[in-house]
Amino acid sequence: MKVNSEVIVSYADSINRTEREELELVRAYWAEKRGDRLMPARREIDPLDIIPALPNVIIIEVQRDPVDFLYRLIGTEVDKHSTQSYTGHKVSEIPHRAPPSTVWENLMMVTKEKTPSCQRVPYVGPGYDFTETRQVLLPLSDDGTTVDHLLAVIVYLRKTDIVETGESFTSSEGPASLPEE
Question: I need a surface site. Which of 6, 36, 57, 137 has the fewest CB within 10 A?
């Protein structure tokens, strides 16, 4: 499976260059670590390799029986724009992220489909000037088959940061998955 790097750029066309670069840096790093496999392993991901994007990076552990998602690493920029620090918390314990939220559905989709995705997600948090986020979710697997972690990068957008492109990726339309080449 190959991920078309142009897809993330096209989904991110409506945000500023710095934020697009953060999304692309993490996607390219993931693709390099993946090589010709379906996805890289968590042990291959070193957050220090992506320092420019690190404040916007999240590493999530996928739990089973019951299914849940545990925040293992949350970048400082993500923490700053959240209602509290969620490192060590399960997604199901956070009311605006628990099922059936868009966040939960996106995490489930990437876990089940084993494929990267890029979405617009409405912003919920203390930053009243933000309207939405752009989120790239990338699957990780220690055994090469089962998604056991997710690597995410999130950028926060103010209404003034968004350039209307005529595209609509609202939560009611669901997440946009990255196609294979």
Answer: 36
Note if the bond before 100 is cis, omega within 30 degrees: yes
What pLDDT shows up at residue 2? Answer: 38
Q: Does the predicted TM-score (pTM) go above 0.85?
A: no
Q: What is the pLDDT of residues 91-131, one digit of tens each?
A: 999 988 888 888 899 999 999 999 999 888 778 777 678 88
Amino acid at 142: D
How much is the average pLDDT of 51-56? 94
Q: How far are the Cα atoms of 31, 44, 116 from residue 138, in angstroms, in the given order? A: 9, 13, 5
The dihedral built from the CA positions of residue 90, 147, 2 and 29, taken in this order, carries a sign that is positive
| Dihedral of the alpha carbons of 83, 128, 7, 46, in degrees to the nearest 10 | -30
Phi then psi for residue 22, to 5 deg, are -65, -45
| Domain parsing of the chain, residue ranges | 5-169
Position 19 scores a pLDDT of 62
Q: What angle do CA 78, 84, 85 make, to 5 degrees?
A: 65
C-alpha–C-alpha distance, residues 131 and 148, integer Å: 30
Q: CATH assignment of 5-169?
A: 3.30.450.20
Q: Which residues contact 18 (CB under 8 A, 6 or more apart)?
A: none
